[in-house]
């Protein structure tokens, strides 16, 4: 007769006991699982310690972006200006929207520059993780540093281009004004919103790379609904639109940020005539997108770079 044992006696309990002892020993000495998501306060502290990497990475990408082009960094200014020229011909001349808007060229160029900031931040955020897998898999750092650095790169590019924007304003007879200083808090709120949006899109893009192919169509539609080339106030005044459509147009975050910059920089849209709800919307969007996007990205921290 042959005796068959289903399992070695006491083997599994001994293995479980050893694993529990090892886990307790690791916890006592502060060791953690590789790739595990840290607590939110620890994650924020670690991200703050990497702030120099974030700024250096953004600057390096900005410098390398046009390094192979003959005109180099001038394309940072030429690209939005050429877009503005095309929009001026199509919407300002052919569709004659300039008739309803004073200072149409400053109005249009400001809208193009401001929306481009959000547009490029969203596009870069979508590929922030999926396009940097080598870096993500090779080094340990808070992954939120990537989409934030991409947004910082776009902010640096916008600041570099503001000189051309101010020159255009002066060239078309818009005088300097103390209200120009309001552009600084407006850009700060837009950066927080863009960073939160980029963080959320980075998580979606890391899970579903096809999002990157869809985003140009979404952003183009968003641009047309944001009053970049036409006046939302003029449309609302001339047409009896449903209440829901009116609220959506007024609360559109891209339109809110464009309005803040136009009222800050253009004399005919002077800041003292800015509807008070615009600043409230800007602060609200910064909080919702900034905090919500950061938390949404952090919750999937341990999944980035896998697969």
Word description of this protein:
The model has no long low-confidence stretch (mean pLDDT 84). The longest helix has 27 residues, at 145-171. This protein has one domain (43-303). It has helices at residues 11-28, 40-49, 51-65, 75-94, 104-126, 133-138, 145-171, 183-207, 211-224, 232-238, 243-251, 253-265, 276-298. It is an all-alpha fold and 307 residues long.
Features:
307 residues, 68% helix
Tell me what portion of residues adopts beta-strand conformation. under 5%
Number of strands: 0
Number of domains: 1
How many H/I helical runs?
Answer: 13
The chain-level structural class is mainly alpha
Mean pLDDT: 84
Radius of gyration: 25 Å
Write the H/E string, N to C: HHHHHHHHHHHHH
Q: For the report, how would you describe the main beta sheet?
A: none
Range of helix content: 55-70%
Distance between the termini: 50 Å
Shape: globular
- The poorly predicted ranges are none
SSE arrangement:
Blueprint: H1 11-28, H2 40-49, H3 51-65, H4 75-94, H5 104-126, H6 133-138, H7 145-171, H8 183-207, H9 211-224, H10 232-238, H11 243-251, H12 253-265, H13 276-298
Helix pairs in contact: 3-7, 4-5, 5-7, 5-8, 5-9, 5-12, 7-8, 8-12, 8-13, 12-13
